[in-house]
Amino acid sequence: MARAGNRENQGWSMPGQCKSMLAGALIAAAALTATPARAADLVRLRVNAFPNAKALPLHAGIAKGIFARHGLALELQLTESSKSQREGLASGAFEIAQAALDNAVAMIEVAKQDVVILSGGDSGMNEFIVQPEIGSFADLKGRTVIVDAPDTAYALQAKKILLKAGLHEGADYTIKPVGAVVYRYKALIEDKSNAGGVLNLPFNIQAAEHGLKSLGRLIDLLGPYQAAGAFAMRPWARDHADTVERYLAAYVESLRFVRDPANKAECLALLRDKLKLSESSAERTHAQLVDPGFGFTPDARFSQEGFRNMLALRAEIERKGGGAPAAPEKYVDLGYYERAMKSLAP
């Protein structure tokens, strides 16, 4: 396995909230590996995710010792943007990304890097959030829409939604990249000239508490969509198949813990601690996370239909209609996931 890079040298400064989440994750990991005999048996694995509620299975898996039971000393890194995440994965700053799979497709198609998708995760948990005076998508004409990066994932979904409303990027509205969802949330709250953007949990809920409103859930506006999942550099995954399978098995077990109603109190405590949420915000966030129609996909199953829709959307928006999307098999190898699932009890 590649030696760890220095996370302090990744070229960005985390907001206080992100620092708190990362510190908590690393402290928990350290506590679990405190016994020397056990620490010697664990395989070090660096996983990169976004600082939002969708990281809850990772936090829970660390806190409950699930990753350690699967033989992994998991180090959780939090990213500021999809761009920095893609660059970090390619450079070996970490081994697995847990994020929107469109980023993996972008690495393959645009950067020509050998990336492989390992699992599903969720449909995005996204809402199109706008300023209070915006009554419809048509009202975004002449306004600014904020995104993470302009060429991946939820930015493409936003562009498609606005195109359906008759609005064309550049001619009818302006796209402004600001980074991860925590930054998009802050941009909407702090600068009213930013008229709208796509937010997921818990920031869609917090935005509503600040008086912003939703024009709808993206899965309702666009249909099934394979959003988040795990991906890695294909050569690394091939050379570390056992580690990949252990990770996927541990992640699914952690996800089962999160979705089990018996563990709600512990999950609420983690949400309050890691994201600094109020009791009511944590309750609402948790309810949406465990909603199988909007939140986590049970057992992080991969949606073939959702992935085909994602590829078609990318082909339409990024290629401007010039060519059919590639076959899903070009990007995905679910063999690791299938073997991991066989190692788990039903």
Supply the key terms:
D-Maltodextrin-Binding Protein, domain 2, alpha/beta, globular, disordered N terminus, 346 residues, 5-stranded mixed β-sheet, 46% helix, single chain
Oligomerization state: single chain
Largest sheet: 5 strands, mixed
- Output the number of helix runs: 16
By CATH reckoning, the class of the largest domain would read: Alpha Beta
Basic shape: globular
The proportion of residues in beta strands is: 15-25%
Give me the count of strands: 10
Which percent bin holds the helix content?
40-55%
Q: Could you name the CATH homologous superfamily of the largest domain?
A: Periplasmic binding protein-like II
Cα distance, first to last residue?
30 Å
CATH architecture of the largest domain: 3-Layer(aba) Sandwich
What is the SS-derived class?
A: alpha/beta
Number of domain modules: 2
Compute the CA-based radius of gyration. Answer: 19 Å
CATH T-level fold name of the largest domain:
D-Maltodextrin-Binding Protein, domain 2
Order of helices and strands: HHEHHEHEHEEEHEHEHEHEHHHHHH
**Mean pLDDT across all residues, rounded?**
89
**How do the strands line up in the largest sheet?**
2-1-3-10-4
Question: Which residues sit in consecutive blocks of at least 5 with pLDDT less than 50?
Answer: 1-37
